[in-house]
Amino acid sequence: MITDNLGLVLENQLINLYIPAFRSCLVFRVRARRNRGFEEIPYGSIPVAKDEVVYTLDGGTVAVPEDGVLPARSYTPSSKTLPSIVEGVFDSKDMFYLSPDYRNILLHCKYYITPAWIRVLTEVPAGVLHNRFQRDRVILDISKDWGWKRGFIETFHVPGVHIGFKFCNDLNANVYTFIKIVYGEYEVEIPKDPELIYGVIVGKIPAYSFTWQYITSEEIVRSTLLRVYGITGFPVIFEKDKAVKKYEELIKNLKV
């Protein structure tokens, strides 16, 4: 069994985090769950404030009537990080942001949003839209539901990277909102066995596999991954001998 009843990865299990922008994977082993027993956070409302101006699906703007209320047929025009509800975090404007020096910590977050029809989209890094069709031929805007989730979204927070969210209420009524977060604070290491890494990437060794919502390459993410882990991932190579040789080289650069 790889996960528990909350869908979080158990100790000593593996994570295969696929990064589409680099066509590579970061493979982690969970050494410990630092927040075991404290995984659920009643976070509160979507971070919109009274009188804040949001856009409408009909092409106009509207003011938010109350804190946490998303007006009828409206959406947040810019990416929002989730402000911290506790003091002492690295960034009070982004609760799950970690310093690059916390390279042995990986945060796995599942966001449950009420009402369940609310549309949500993640941006990695915050402010960069990745919705594409036919490579980069078509950039998808808010009018297309492609890539958006409803009522739930999941991601991994890598140290040094801010992840943003967009929210949309396409119902013809104002709605009060709420977010419940289930998260795992994993203490991780990257395995140093190239054959094990190959087995995870090609699916021969069980792991929790997740595709990070990072499609178009941004230099800030590339440089951050290099700073944090020493690599941008292990490239997906299906020829075993070639893959193992490449992974042996990359393992020499690891920082965790």
In terms of DSSP E residues, the strand content is: 25-35%
Helix-strand sequence? EEEEEEEEEEEEEEEEHEHEH
Radius of gyration: 19 Å
| Count of DSSP strands | 18
Shape: globular
Cα(first) to Cα(last) distance is 25 Å
Helix content percent band: 10-25%
Largest sheet: 8 strands, mixed
Pairing-aware structural class of the strands and helices?
mainly beta
User: On the 0-100 scale, what is the average pLDDT?
Assistant: 93
Kindly list the characteristics that best describe this protein:
mainly beta; eight-stranded mixed sheet; six-stranded antiparallel sheet; 33% strand
What report would you give on this structure?
It is a single chain. It contains three helices and 18 strands. The protein has 256 residues and is mainly beta. It has a domain of 175 residues. Strands 1, 2, 3, 8, 13, 16, 17 and 18 form an eight-stranded mixed sheet that branches. β10 and β11 form a beta hairpin. α1 crosses α3. The relative contact order is 0.24.
Topology of this protein?
Blueprint: E1 14-19, E2 24-33, E3 40-44, E4 53-56, E5 61-63, E6 69-70, E7 74-75, E8 105-114, E9 119-123, E10 132-133, E11 138-139, E12 149-150, E13 152-157, E14 164-169, E15 175-176, E16 178-189, H1 194-201, E17 208-211, H2 219-229, E18 234-235, H3 240-251
Parallel strand pairs: 1-17
Antiparallel strand pairs: 1-2, 2-16, 2-18, 3-16, 4-5, 4-7, 6-15, 7-14, 8-13, 8-16, 9-12, 9-14, 10-11
Summarize the model shown.
The chain has 256 residues and is mainly β.
